[in-house]
């Protein structure tokens, strides 16, 4: 009875926020980035419930959608459904043999979730009504690759009464590390087990070969707002030491390509600039990578990677991909979402944006980065395939 009352209160609060946000939702739905996701998630447009399936994976975005590939590879005999939050997640998930949907806003889950069998929620996608309704309608609910960052735990712990209710709907928590396990238990989770980070099981490879230019090739990878200018200035300072070096700038979000191109031209007006979409050749001082899907191919021919998402409070990005290709990695300090993955990667320099030029000099004599670690998916797969 207590949970039913809480469900009602939570739904009413969700309805209030939905109505309050309607003007913004309508406005943002016209932006290219949200043109598909907002109509699908908040208005149900072209987003019907799943057809009957065996296992439903819920991921947030591109990284999580890619991370489940090794698991799906072992579940080829199962009917798979995947829900996502972002449009990049949708594109990545659509490459699998699976039904793919945007996860509706929680208010609409009452009408959207039917009778799932097993629901697997990736990382930190803790939506109360997703857990509650899936469990109430007969599904096993599993948290996979579950994590709570150093930065987030204090906030979670202040709300532990809420997470105790949410996690009580979860049948099993497969978490990334022993630190995560302690945090989940402190929040009231049961059946918690450490299996490691499933991203260690990813098959990372290039699918196209590009010629490597002469001189040191540096990639500023998956950069965010507020990071590119500092990286470019660091590169300019380094060029005084190594005039033949070249820089590739790869913004994380495609809607920023034009803006970043203008920023490069303004910040480094004396350097030559090309756009990857025009020639796919690395001949100029700086190349803006304004297409999607080529990052691993560029890692394969690069010497040094300045990994974005860590010079702004984003939480960092996956270091396993550049490490697979032996790139020397430079990262900022804000890696709170990727701290566990960085434990498996050797020869990484952590620096402020002001220290990038010096880090680039140091990279000349550093050994290539490499991955030291693995993950055993047998426990996860055995549990998923139990009757």
Describe the structure.
With 387 residues, the protein is an alpha/beta fold. It has two domains: 2-203, 3-Deoxy-D-manno-octulosonic-acid transferase, N-terminal domain (Rossmann fold); 217-371, Glycogen Phosphorylase B (Rossmann fold, 3-Layer(aba) Sandwich), CATH 3.40.50. Helices cover 39% and strands 17% of the residues. The strands form three sheets. A seven-stranded parallel beta sheet has the order 3-2-1-4-5-6-7. α6 (106-112) runs parallel beside α7 (128-136). The protein is globular, with a radius of gyration of 22 Å. The model has no long low-confidence stretch (mean pLDDT 94).
Write the SSE topology.
Blueprint: H1 2-28, H2 37-43, E1 55-58, H3 62-67, H4 69-73, E2 80-84, H5 87-93, E3 99-102, H6 106-112, E4 118-122, H7 128-136, E5 140-146, H8 150-158, H9 160-167, E6 172-175, H10 178-186, E7 192-194, E8 217-223, H11 228-239, E9 246-251, H12 257-267, E10 273-275, H13 276-279, E11 286-288, H14 295-299, E12 304-307, H15 320-324, E13 328-331, H16 339-342, E14 345-346, E15 348-350, H17 356-363, E16 370-371, H18 378-384
Parallel strand pairs: 1-2, 1-4, 2-3, 4-5, 5-6, 6-7, 8-9, 8-12, 9-11, 10-11, 12-13, 13-15
Antiparallel strand pairs: 14-16
């Amino acid at each position: 009875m207590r949970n039913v009352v809480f469900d009602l209160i939570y739904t009413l609060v969700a309805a209030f926020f939905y109505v309050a946000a309607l003007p913004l939702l309508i406005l943002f739905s016209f932006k290219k980035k949200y043109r598909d996701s907002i109509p699908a998630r908040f208005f149900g447009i072209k987003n019907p419930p799943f057809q009957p399936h065996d296992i439903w994976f819920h991921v947030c975005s591109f990284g999580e959608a890619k991370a489940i590939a090794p698991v799906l590879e072992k579940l080829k005999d199962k009917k798979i459904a995947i829900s996502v939050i972002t449009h990049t997640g949708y594109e990545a998930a659509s490459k699998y043999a699976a039904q793919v949907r945007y996860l509706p806003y929680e208010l609409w889950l009452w009408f959207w979730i039917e009778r799932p069998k097993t629901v697997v929620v990736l990382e930190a996608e803790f939506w109360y009504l997703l857990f509650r309704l899936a469990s109430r309608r007969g599904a096993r609910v599993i948290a996979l690759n579950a994590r709570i960052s150093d930065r987030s735990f204090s906030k979670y712990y202040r709300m532990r009464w809420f997470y105790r209710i949410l996690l009580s709907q979860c049948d099993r928590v497969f978490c990334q590390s022993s630190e995560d396990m302690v945090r989940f238990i402190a929040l009231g989770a049961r059946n918690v087990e450490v299996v490691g980070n499933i991203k260690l099981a990813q098959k990372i490879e290039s699918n196209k070969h590009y010629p490597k230019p002469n001189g040191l090739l540096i990639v500023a990878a998956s950069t965010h707002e507020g990071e590119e200018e500092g990286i470019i200035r660091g590169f300019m300072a380094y060029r005084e030491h190594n005039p033949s070096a070249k820089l590739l700038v790869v913004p994380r979000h495609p809607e920023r390509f034009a803006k970043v191109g203008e920023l490069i031209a303004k910040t480094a007006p004396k350097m030559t600039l090309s756009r990857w979409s025009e020639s796919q050749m690395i001949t100029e001082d700086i190349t803006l990578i304004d297409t999607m899907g080529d990052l691993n191919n560029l890692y394969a021919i690069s010497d040094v990677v300045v990994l974005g998402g860590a010079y702004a409070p984003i939480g960092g990005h996956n270091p396993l991909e550049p490490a697979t290709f032996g790139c020397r990695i430079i990262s900022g300090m804000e890696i709170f979402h990727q701290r566990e993955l960085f434990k498996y990667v050797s020869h990484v320099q952590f620096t402020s944006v002001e220290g990038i030029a010096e880090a680039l000099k140091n990279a000349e004599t550093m050994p290539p980065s490499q991955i030291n670690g693995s993950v055993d998916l047998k426990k996860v797969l055995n549990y998923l395939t139990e009757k």
